[in-house]
Amino acid sequence: MKKNIVTLLMLSILVVGCKSKKAYSDNLRTKNVLSERKRKKTKTRATSSNTDTSLPNDSGKFIAFSIASIPEYIDTFSEIAQLEMKAYGIPASITLAQGLLESGYGKGELAMKTNNHFGIKCHKGWQGDYDFHDDDEKGECFRKYNHPMFSFRDHSIFLTTRSRYAFLFNYRNTDYKKWAYGLRKAGYATDKRYPQKLIYLIEKHQLYKYDTEISKAGYGNKIVVATETDAVHVVKKGDTLYALSRKYYVSVDQLMQMNNLKNANLSVGQKLMVRTTDINN
Q1: Could you tell me the pLDDT band of residue 28, with boundaries at 50, 70 and 90?
Q2: Closest CA to 79 of 58, 62, 63, 96
Q3: Which residue has the higher pLDDT, 252 or 171?
C-alpha cells in the first residue's frame, strides 16, 4: 500500500505540465503497475497480518493536481481512502464522497491551490502551510498540503481527535448512511442536505464497494481506530508542534493542551507528553 502511494506521488510529479496524451499514457501505466502490485500483495496477504498505514515523507514541494472527471478522481484516490479506513475506521466511501463534494472532484478553486480536499480550515494551533479563500466569510484561512494524500490523512486525524465526532465510531464502518447523517449532526457542514448529497454520490458511483473490499479483508466487522498510549518525546533540533502532530497523529491543539503550552515555541531537550499510535487490525 505504502509503495503504491509512493508510486502515485512520483508519477504525479512527472505528470505535472504534460500534455493530455502523455498524461493518459502515464495514467494507464500507473494502473498496470498498481494492478501488478495488488496481485503480488494478494499472494502474500495470507502469511502476514501487519498493515503499513504510514504515508511517504512530505517532499516539501507543492504538487499541483489536475483531475479531469469524477471517475478519474475516484480511481486516483480510492486506494488512499481505503488506507485511511484501515488505519482509522472511517468508511472509504464516506472519505471519497466528502472529497468529491468538498473539492468539486479536485477541480474546485480551494483544492487546486491548496490540495485541501475536505474544506478543513486552519483552526487554532494550526502550524502547517495555509492559504486564504472565500467561504462562509471572506478571506478565511484554510490548511494547505503539498500533496492531496496528506489532506486525506489530516481528514482522518481531524475526525478522530475531536470529541464531537466520537459517536460516529460507534457505527459500523460499512454503514455509510449513518455516517453521512452523523457528520451533519456533528456539525461538519451547515448544508442541511449534506447527508443526502454524500449518499447520492456513494450510491451513484458505487463507492460502498470500497468499504466492502476492506470488510472482506477483515477490517469491517469491528471498529478499527488507532489506539493511543501516552509517551514522552524529547524535543530535537528542527522539531515543531506541527511536525510532531503529524508524527504522533494528534492535533496541534491536543499537544498544546496535554503540555499546558501557551504558544508553539519549543526548545531542544524539552520533554513533551505525546501519544504513540498503534493500529489494531
Answers
A1: very low
A2: 96
A3: 171
- CATH 3.10.350.10 holds for 227-278: yes
Q: Are strands 271-278 and 227-234 parallel, antiparallel or unpaired?
A: antiparallel
Beta carbons within 8 Å of 209's beta carbon, 6+ residues apart: none
Degrees (nearest 5) of the Cα angle 144, 207, 110?
A: 20
pLDDT-derived band at 50 (thresholds 50, 70, 90) equals: very low
Q: Which of 38-47, 150-159, 244-253 has the lowest mean pLDDT?
A: 38-47
Specify burial of residue 131 (Cβ count, 10 A radius: 0-12, 13-18, 19+).
Answer: middle
Which grid coordinates are listed for 73? 478522481
Residue spans per domain, the chain: 59-219, 227-278
Alpha-carbon distance of 131 to 122, in angstroms, equals: 9
